[in-house]
Amino acid sequence: MTTDMNMAKVLPRLSAELKISAGQIAAVAKLFAEGNTIPFIARYRKEAHGNLDEVQISQIQERLTYYGELEERRAAILKSIDEQGKLTDELRAKIEDCQQKAALEDLYQPYKPKRRTRAMIAKEKGLEPLADAIWGDRLGDAAVQSASADDLQGARDIIAERIADMAEVRGLVRQAFATKAVVKSEVVTPKPTEPTKFEQYYDFQEPIADIPSHRFLAIRRGQKEGVLWVRLTVDKEPLIEDVLAIVNRERGGRENEQVRLAAEDAYKRLLAPSCEIDVMVEKKLSADRAAVEVFAENLRHLLLAAPLGEKRVLAIDPGIRTGCKVAMLDETGKFLVNTVIYPMQRTAEAQTTLATLVQKYKPDAIAVGNGTAGRETEAFARDVLKLMGAKDVMVVSVSEAGASVYSAGEVARDEFPDLDLTVRGAISIGRRLQDPLAELVKIDPKAIGVGQYQHDVHQPLLGAKLDEVVVSCVNKVGVELNTASAPLLTRVSGIGESLAKRIVAWRNANGAFRSRSDLKKVTGLGPKAFEQSAGFLRIRGAANPLDASAVHPERYALVQTMASDLGVDVAALVGNAALADKIDVRKYITNDVGEPTLKDIVSELKKPGRDPRAVFEKPAFRDDVTTIDDVHEGMTLEGVVTNVTAFGAFVDIGIHQDGLVHVSELADRFIRDPAEVVKAGDRIKVRVIGVDKARNRVSLSARSSPSARKPGGGYSSGGSRSDRGRMDNRPRRPSGGGGFVCNPFANL
To answer: What is the dihedral of CA 295, 300, 305, 311, to 10 degrees?
Structure first.
């Protein structure tokens, strides 16, 4: 965070960057300084910051952190230059006025400790006076006239480094690379003999300013895997002239041949390689940030996927050679029994075993992992249910992403120390169906699989963002205090890993929490932690019905006043929408509580503890489509969106690899961002438009028909709706204009 001394300088800049008032930013900074979390600030301190949402608050935190790091670096640079005895008033002013990290480093460049350079060697040979004479246009000096070719080269080395260290020159060259350079990629020699996913980049170029993040990351991956050779190119001749113009102005003299040669050498040897690296790194970070935002949105939708709820589930982790691991869970997710069946080898025996389990435990659903043999296992389970006449038991395919990470991890070992990890995996699959959020929080978010190139982006950046999303989702839904696992409690605002374990230990030793105030009995859970967490924790069946709602304990007295004014007790008010509608929020506005918070309270009183997630709907895969060999052009299938990217959406159609709906095939109208029309978890109808078995690729379309869009990006009458292929009726954001790409994989 920035220091108070610099907030006055930072606030106007932040306000312009984020389009948020300086007063709101200052309020959020103060709340952070007081130890408040993003979910708490967003939900329970709306009056303080003017009703900003979590995204805006997170952006403020990110930029405050940036400027805080900038201040630390500025102080370190000033100290370093001062210790060298080279800190002038003019230089100090420039450094203190600098508001960008790259520009700050440019100012520091001449004073950075360097490895032994050619310029240093030349200075050791006593050639700096010769360099000064050339720099000062004193070409008639005897030293210059008598200098050997080697001496002139050494003098030019000194001048070249002097030029490369000029902040204005470095800024100019870096800016030119950032705005005018072209990314070029070529296939390495020898060319791969087998098909690769990088073939469209074997002879490719695109301006770095225009290349989308997903394409840049694809090229970088091709480079990392040794398939592509990648470089930045820029027209150097005019750039060198611009460098010379700055140099000659700084020298206060006219151009001479030695200075020109030194400038050309500085550009080629020192500036271009360095600036190319800087720009490529910055572009990579920019692409990473864009990709991480996409991954975060995918994770958010996965975590907030509709839960089956408190239903009995029989979970199956499919397998061929080692068999299918089966685990039975009760309505709360409690593990009851497990076994192994071999549907592919010992079919009759497996049928009998499964039928016996269904008859004895009466599951509401059978959850089948979507890994190897998943589709075959689903078909087997349906056949058994059909033979039994068990029409009310649904069979649901559940993503296995990250299940193996959980089953072999510490959390699973703590939960089920006596069970084999394969059984733990089956339990996780079943619990994911019951409550995706509660189960997925036990897994490192990066192991869930949230997008293309997720392993190529900066992992600390990805990890921090995904953790932020998990925390946001957990607090958005709320957590049942008496059943929550320690990993789930860890994500609650104000509760870390240590406190979560203490809460569970207290619950195990003392029984269920009877009220939110009981939390204060947990060792180490002080007033601040209680303030931050209490509103997000729920206690169903508590004596005070507000303990099962999102109303914060600090507002219980206010709700009591509302109830008294209506002539009822709190219990009669909570859950009574008709009574809640009679509350005039304006009557209760004070300096401490404003209309936003009061409206939240009234909304919560109408539907206390409401789960914001959608109602569960079972996807319907075709039983005759289980592998890519079963997929043919022209087929219409129903699938589930697994990932949304900048170039389209990946859809699970019931085979072992997802199909891709390119952005140009997602809607009858033009859309720029796939997130305008789909999100992870959506059920969607698609048509197969291409099958590439060699590369395991299936191309899909969600458009109503191939002719729905006119050539050139126009639209036929009646084909303008973007949601013809969708299974729900959520509203869409407006879209922009542009062109189309025919090959769905062309811009990967």
So the answer is: 120
